[in-house]
Amino acid sequence: MSSKERSEVKLITESFIRPKHELEPSKQVHYLGPIDLYVLPPSFKDSLSVSLLHFYPLAGQFTTQKFPNEHASSIYVDCIKGPGAGLLHASVDMTLQDGMFIGFTMNHSTGDGTSLWHFISSLSEIFLQLHNGKYEDSLSVSKKRIYGPILPEGYDRSLKLPYLEPEEFVFQFEPGPLRERIFHFSSTAITKLKTKAQSWGWEINPPLSEAQFGNVIIMALTSCKIAKLLGQDLGWAAKLINRGIMMYDDKRIRECVSSIVKAPHVAQTSPEFASYMRNNLWIGGSMRFDMYGPEFGLGPAVAVLAGFANKHDGKVVANPGCDGGGTVDLEVCLEPNVMDALELDGEFMSFVSSN
User: Fold this and answer.
1) Which of 179, 146, 108, 107 lies closest to 335 in space, CA to CA?
2) What 3-state DSSP class applies to 342?
3) Burial of 175 (0-12, 13-18, 19+ CB in 10 A)
4) pLDDT class for 44, splitting at 50, 70, 90?
5) pLDDT higher than 50, residue 3
6) Residue 295 DSSP symbol
7) What are the distances in angstroms from CA 195 to CA 199, 235, 238, 276?
8) The CATH classification of domain 179-349, taken from the options 3.30.559.10, 3.10.300.10, 3.20.20.300, 3.60.20.20
9) Residue 126: exposure state from Cβ atoms within 10 A (0-12, 13-18, ≥19)
10) Paired strand residues for 317
11) How far apart are CA 52 and CA 278, in angstroms?
12) pLDDT tens for residues 322-355?
């Protein structure tokens, strides 16, 4: 896109929103779990302020406590310190009829995708209640959040990282030129693909509540030689990925969490880190996220797009399709020549919807 084609973003207002009133729990620091470390109109302002009563860490500020004698640091969220959650209202010079863009961003160390969409859904619930004339003291959310890091027994909530300064673990990553495209899959196509993959998965036992706020993610890995992969169909590749996921049963998941607790560290976004190496496919997101349920007075969303963070060659984000009913959108990032080749792959494109 040339500079002449780019739309200018004009900032209209910028504000910081705190919880509607002080909460006793928010006077305590919000500790990050081991995986956390590893990885508008006035009514909208009011809704955000009330929502932060339920999600008060999002109005806090990251704080670092250093232990020079141990060459270590502890990072947590101070729920009182800081100006609050930032809210930007801006306009863009482009043609858009009867619509608006609403974007959300939070540090991944605060929570995973499930936590983010829990917050967005709760914000929508509160917005609609206020919009329909409910008073603040009668507002409610359908799913209460649960705080506290997921830790094995016997470990303190305040984990120490083996770093004193940011430059010891913060590295800049430049992914290079990328092409990004969203591929739509109908429910029929997804059913056929699932049949090929014989898809299933494990969960931790007992299952964690969907209201758990924080990061509850584990990276499942699998690999094969390129020559062998190219000689197989999509079903074979899907089964290979599924076998990798099946290795992570309750015991394996707990072992992974325990290993991070025993030796806390920060995942790196660099070519040397396994997930960012060439010829890697990294699949994230979830079709279970309620992306088209939340709304803010204009009806449900017509499209969802993830931001640029953590995007690199081989990154795939799976989202529910806007049509519902089991449809899926795959947001795919590839080097331009690789994307060109994918679009010419007859087997893959036979599952992609044209609309």
Assistant:
1) 179
2) helix
3) middle
4) confident
5) no
6) B
7) 7, 8, 10, 30
8) 3.30.559.10
9) buried
10) 284, 331
11) 41
12) 988 999 999 999 999 999 999 999 999 999 997 6
Q: How confident is the model at residue 277 (pLDDT cuts 50, 70, 90)?
A: low
pLDDT in tens, 162-198: 999 988 888 777 788 999 999 999 999 998 888 877 6
pLDDT of residue 96: 65
Domains 9-168 and 179-349 share a fold: yes
Other C-beta atoms within 10 Å of 34: how many? 25
Contacts of 222 (CB under 8 A, 6+ apart): 240, 241, 243, 244
Integer Cα distance of 258 and 253 in angstroms: 9
Domain residue ranges of the chain, discontinuous segments joined by +: 9-168, 179-349
HSE-up of 37 (CA within 13 Å, CB side)? Answer: 30
Using the structure block, give the residue that is written with the tokens 């990885």: 39
CATH (residue range 9-168): 3.30.559.10
Cα separation, 60 vs 76, in Å, equals: 10
Q: pLDDT by residue (tens digit) across 295-312?
A: 988 888 988 888 887 788
Phi-psi region at 100: left, alpha or beta (left = phi > 0; alpha = psi -120 to 50)? beta
Mean pLDDT for all residues in the chain: 84
* pTM of the predicted protein model: 0.85
Strand bridging mode 282-285 / 315-320:
parallel
Q: What strands lie across the sheet with 315-320, from one edge to the other?
A: 179-185, 328-334, 315-320, 282-285
